[in-house]
Amino acid sequence: MATITNIFTILLLIISSSFIPLISPHQFSSQRSKNNFGFGPRPTMTNLQFYFYDKPSLPKATAIPIVTTPGFGFGTVVMIDDALLKTANKKSKVIGRAQGFYAMADQNTIGLLMVVNYVFTVGKYNGSSLSVLGRNPVVQPVRELPILGGTGLFRLARGYALASTKWLNLTTGDAIVEYNVTVLHYENDD
Question: For residues 148 and 132, what is the distance between their CA atoms, to the nearest angstrom?
């Protein structure tokens, strides 16, 4: 009788295990067709020009030091919620926000680590954003920063931004920086 019970148990295990999918314990992903995400057949190339208004001065500062070091040098970290402007005029139309932080990451010159999202709030790109993560050597007349991603109409964005300072108040630190951005992205069909 014990033998029939053992055989029955083994058969039951074999039959029931055939219904359990065999998944490696290390598998955590699967491939999907790009059509599942509403992507078009080819990426779109978009060029944008806007102005980043960094305002550490009071009142209504939009750039606040959250970690300070002697002389505002290496190691200083500044959190930002800066306006993105349509033109280089401080009173120009706001088209979005630059939100994130920059940190003094170079001991020998002014080199910033930029971790910033450009969040657009008007027009076709309202609700979409671009993400920047890279080095900004601000003493250079033109700096190149990588675009590493995006949301909304900028899904899977990749590209670069060329930044150049248009105005700087050496007393307050307020600045307007022109950004010329080129990105490849997939505009979703949603």
Answer: 6
User: Residue 172's Cα: distance from chain center in Å?
Assistant: 28
Q: What is the pLDDT of residues 70-104, one digit of tens each?
A: 877 999 999 999 999 999 999 999 999 999 999 99
Q: Is the dihedral of CA 29, 35, 41, 46 positive or negative?
A: negative
pTM of the predicted protein model: 0.78
Q: Which of 179, 185, 147 is nearest to 162 (CA)?
A: 179
Rounded CA gap, 19 and 116, in Å? 48
Closest by CA to 84, choosing from 176, 183, 185, 165, is: 176
Q: What is the 3-state secondary structure (H, E, C) of 28-92?
A: CCCCCCHHHHCCCCCCEEEEEEEEEEECCCCCCCCEEEEECCHHHCCCCEEEEEEEEECCCCCCC
